[in-house]
Design goal:
Its EC number is 2.7.13.3. One of its GO terms (molecular function) is protein histidine kinase activity. The chain is an alpha+beta fold and 141 residues long. Helix content is 36%, strand content 28%. The longest helix has 24 residues. It is elongated, with a radius of gyration of 21 Å.
């Protein structure tokens, strides 16, 4: 185990690739790490206090379902949330959990590349199956 001074939580959050947001029950932003600021294409001043849906052209998250899960004391995950910002579509995995202070911690991880790779792998597998099936002899009269 390393000895010495550990970085503070702020330094760690600022270094993450995933977008981290701290929102209230109205989804107003109270904290956004640099990855979230970049994703949302907004400065921290414009983000803070603004409800997340107002920052987006489109948001596929079922907010009611998320709030129901959180109210029941459960976490919430949606593996395919689409948001459109400045005309650009982003597919994200979103995880939400209630914090003791009454805030909601949202973590959003990009899925665009992973989804594209999965689709390419599926298309390759389908093409492989088709070529193998075409090699089988057909019914004979």
């Amino acid at each position: 185990m390393a000895t010495g001074t550990l970085p503070d939580a702020g330094q760690i959050l600022n270094s993450l690739i995933n977008s981290i947001l701290l929102v209230d029950d109205d989804l107003a932003v109270h904290y956004a790490n640099p990855a979230a600021q970049q994703l949302l294409a907004q400065s921290s001043r414009k983000l803070f206090g603004t409800p997340l849906p107002e920052l987006l052209s489109y948001f596929s998250l079922n907010i009611g379902l998320m709030q129901e899960s959180l109210a029941a004391g459960q976490g919430f995950t949606d593996n395919e949330v689409t948001l459109v910002i400045d005309g650009r579509s982003h597919i994200l995995s979103l995880t939400a959990q209630r914090l003791p202070e009454g805030y909601i911690l949202l973590e959003m991880a990009p899925m665009d590349n992973q989804r594209r790779l999965s689709q390419e792998q599926l298309q390759h597998a389908q093409a492989d199956c088709r070529s193998r099936l075409s090699a089988w002899p057909g019914p004979r009269d």
